[in-house]
TrEMBL record:
Gene Ontology biological process: DNA-templated transcription initiation
Signal sequence residues: none
Gene3D superfamilies listed in its UniProt record: 1.10.1740.10, 3.10.450.50, Winged helix-like DNA-binding domain superfamily/Winged helix DNA-binding domain
Protein name (Swiss-Prot/TrEMBL): Sigma-70 family RNA polymerase sigma factor
NCBIfam families for the chain: sigma70-ECF
């Protein structure tokens, strides 16, 4: 077997592992595919004759690509749902596939939590705790000392473990509902919007947000759905003050933060904040698709 065929075979043997690592670091299947493909291109441009462990080399390359992607991630408008909505938010007591749905929601919830971490924290945690890479190897990837890398992973671990299973699943389900709302808004689908809104849902903007939208408080699912019809084009799902919501960017700058109150599988309140002083005080983290 010539060298090119051998490299291709070795890469294919490692592809599933590389994609799994990339997905956990990036939280996006499409971006994980891109990272793995970029690793393949780099493999073909690199002299690997001195590489003793090609699998380890590929893992390092994918991790560095993912770290760069996390650091430079920009606004995206991909379809946000990678699985059917009902598979996550259905009542487990009435869902015959509840075990599969539960497993999916736990996985989604973990990704939600991971996306609240800084890029270096996330890479350190995923590579060490999920893929058992030594801290010395991870340190060379993220450009930190081994001791600093250990601290990053430890801090990330505490944050992940700080959310119990019930809360994590709930957070994953809330994200799915929020993304369903955004998808319906972008498509202008009134019926889908109303489906995720409580009948007496309230939209409550602060004074600055009200001026942006030329509208004050709005109540009732039909009126709120009409208000958001086709209007979420620049919105991104996010963790806002520890709960699910979304952000709106204008010219690359976050101008509006939206907090969602979700109960019993529907959105019961939508609070929008655009006052600059308030925005500086609110902690938020944009969630990738």
């Amino acid at each position: 077997m010539d060298e090119k065929k051998w490299l291709a075979a070795e890469f294919e043997a490692n592809r599933a592992h590389l994609k799994a690592a990339a997905y956990r670091m990036l939280g996006s299947r499409s971006e994980a595919d891109d990272a793995v493909q970029e690793a393949w291109l780099r493999l073909n441009r690199t002299d690997t004759s001195d590489v003793g462990n090609l699998g380890g080399w590929l893992t390092t390359v994918v991790a560095r690509i993912c770290l760069d992607m996390l650091r430079t991630r920009k606004t995206r408008r991909e379809e946000p749902l990678e699985m059917p909505i009902h598979a996550v938010i259905a009542d487990p007591a009435n869902d015959p596939e509840r075990d599969a749905a539960f497993a999916e929601s736990v996985g989604l919830a973990l990704l939600v939590v991971l996306q609240t971490l800084a890029p270096a924290e996330r890479v350190a945690f995923v590579l060490h705790d999920m893929f058992d890479l030594p801290f010395d190897e991870i340190a060379s990837i993220i450009g930190r000392s081994s001791a600093a890398t250990r601290q990053l992973a430890s801090r990330a671990r505490r944050r992940v473990q700080g959310i119990d299973e019930t809360t994590a699943v709930d957070l994953g389900r809330k994200r799915t509902i929020a993304e369903a709302f955004l998808a319906a808004s972008r498509k202008g689908d009134l019926a889908a919007l109303i489906a995720v809104l409580a009948p007496d849902v309230a939209f409550r903007p602060d004074a600055t947000a009200a001026r942006f939208g030329a509208v004050g408080e709005v109540r009732g699912a039909p009126a709120v759905a009409e208000l958001f019809k086709g209007r979420a084009q620049a919105a991104e799902a996010a963790i806002v003050d520890g709960d699910v919501g979304f952000v709106v960017r204008i010219d690359g700058e976050v101008r509006v933060l939206v907090a969602l109150t979700i109960a019993d599988g529907v959105i019961v309140a939508i609070d929008a904040f655009a006052d600059p002083d308030h925005l500086e005080k609110v902690e938020y983290s944009v969630l990738s698709n």
